[in-house]
UniProtKB/TrEMBL annotation:
It comes from Candidatus Amunia macphersoniae. GO terms for biological process: anaerobic respiration. GO terms for cellular component: cell envelope. InterPro entries: Mopterin_OxRdtase_4Fe-4S_dom. Keywords: 4Fe-4S, Iron, Iron-sulfur, Metal-binding, Oxidoreductase. GO terms for molecular function: 4 iron, 4 sulfur cluster binding; electron transfer activity; molybdenum ion binding; oxidoreductase activity. Its main location: other. Its cofactor is [4Fe-4S] cluster. Belongs to the prokaryotic molybdopterin-containing oxidoreductase family. Pfam families: Molybdop_Fe4S4. This is Dehydrogenase. It comes from the Bacteria.
Length: 189
């Protein structure tokens, strides 16, 4: 025990007298460093996911403890990213744990100056009512020559790069089924 404490107190002595001659391991490890453990070691479970930032679809391992995300790392089993993440993907844990994250539906009425919180059910009802109303008002069944169109030009969708491939696929299917032909994603522009 005394030699170990001496090594911690005097890294050069441990380096010269021990097996770690280059000083890249135990010889230069401090007591504090030895007491640390990674956040991933105490996780209850690991969930595979896809990075939400761009259309690349890098694989992520999401470490969860007590139903709270504690760490996100690249998934080495992903054939796309092979365990690597860009700086934004590496920081995506902040997306869920940021204390400034907006977790309610915010709505600003026409000509209002302040935002108000809405229940999710009410916001979804408002959006679907407006979508159906616009579709009904702008529906084009056929052109002037009688060719079938079955579309609306009154609705367009521009997705964001924070959506993953599955979400973009579902949005494309939803809007196509509604007769919308102007569907694009910001990541492709």
């Amino acid at each position: 025990m005394g030699a170990r404490n001496r090594r911690r107190s005097w890294p050069v002595l441990g380096q010269l007298t021990g097996a770690d001659r280059l000083g890249r391991g135990a010889a230069v490890e401090s007591a504090r460093t030895a007491s640390l453990s990674p956040r991933t070691a105490t996780a209850d479970r690991v969930v595979q996911s896809v990075c939400p930032y761009c259309a690349v679809g890098c694989g992520q391992r999401v470490y969860v403890k007590n139903e709270k995300v504690v760490q996100i790392e690249g998934d080495p089993d992903s054939p796309i990213s092979r365990g690597r993440l860009c700086p934004k993907g590496s920081a995506s844990e902040q997306l869920v744990n940021n204390p400034n994250r907006v977790t309610s539906v915010r709505y600003r009425r026409p000509y209002a100056t302040d935002w108000e919180d809405l229940p999710l059910d009410r916001a979804v009802d408002m959006i679907s009512d407006r979508l159906l109303d616009t579709r009904a008002r702008t529906w084009q069944e056929a052109d002037k020559d009688g060719n079938k169109l079955r579309r609306t030009m009154g609705i367009a969708s521009l997705g964001g790069a924070t959506l993953d491939n599955e979400e973009n696929y579902l949005i494309k299917k939803l809007f196509t089924a509604a007769g919308v032909v102007q569907v694009e994603n910001q990541a492709r522009i």
